[in-house]
């Protein structure tokens, strides 16, 4: 576990939900349902009376946090030397394009691709226009 929490690694802290907010309560409910061993389909169903956008946002953030934790445990084994290509098996190769630094699709080593991807996702999740933290902000759109 020491490697997972090394500050020099790519592990990022979880995005927190403010206690006492509706998002925090939804997060607790999502956690409880995912850890209870119930049917996955039932565990992600929108609870009665809750806003669909808030419910989806909570699950997206939780999914990102879980993937980030998993990636943090394996990233030291995938170096530019051992993973020179970001691929999905022998048939698929992923190239990075962000329209900022990489204006055209660019082949990158897997660790560099993953770092850029995780940074990009974190920016999206922290963007209040996409994932507002104020209750009901999505409803006004």
UniProtKB/TrEMBL annotation:
Entry keyword Kinase: yes
Kinase keyword on record: yes
Matches recorded under SUPFAM superfamilies: Mob1/phocein
Molecular functions (GO terms): kinase activity
Annotated residues for binding of Zn(2+): 78, 83
Record keywords, A-Z: Kinase, Metal-binding, Transferase, Zinc
Pfam families attached to this UniProt entry: Mob1_phocein
Annotated InterPro entries: MOB_kinase_act_fam (IPR005301), MOB_kinase_act_sf (IPR036703)
PANTHER family, sorted: MPS ONE BINDER KINASE ACTIVATOR-LIKE MOB (PTHR22599)
Designated name of the protein: MOB3B kinase
Species this chain originates from: Sinosuthora webbiana
């Amino acid at each position: 576990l020491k490697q997972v929490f090394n500050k020099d690694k790519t592990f990022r802290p979880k995005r927190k939900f403010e206690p006492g907010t509706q998002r925090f309560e939804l997060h607790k409910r999502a956690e409880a349902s995912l850890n209870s061993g119930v049917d996955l389909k039932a565990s992600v169903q929108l609870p009665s009376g809750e806003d669909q956008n808030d419910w989806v946002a909570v699950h997206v953030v939780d999914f990102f946090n879980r993937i980030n934790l998993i990636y943090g445990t394996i990233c030291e084994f995938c170096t530019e030397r051992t993973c020179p290509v970001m691929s999905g098996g022998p048939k698929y190769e992923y190239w990075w394009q962000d329209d900022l630094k990489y204006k055209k699709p660019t082949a990158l080593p897997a660790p560099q691709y993953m770092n850029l991807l995780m940074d990009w996702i974190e920016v999206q999740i922290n963007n209040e226009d996409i994932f507002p933290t104020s209750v009901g902000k999505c409803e006004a759109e």
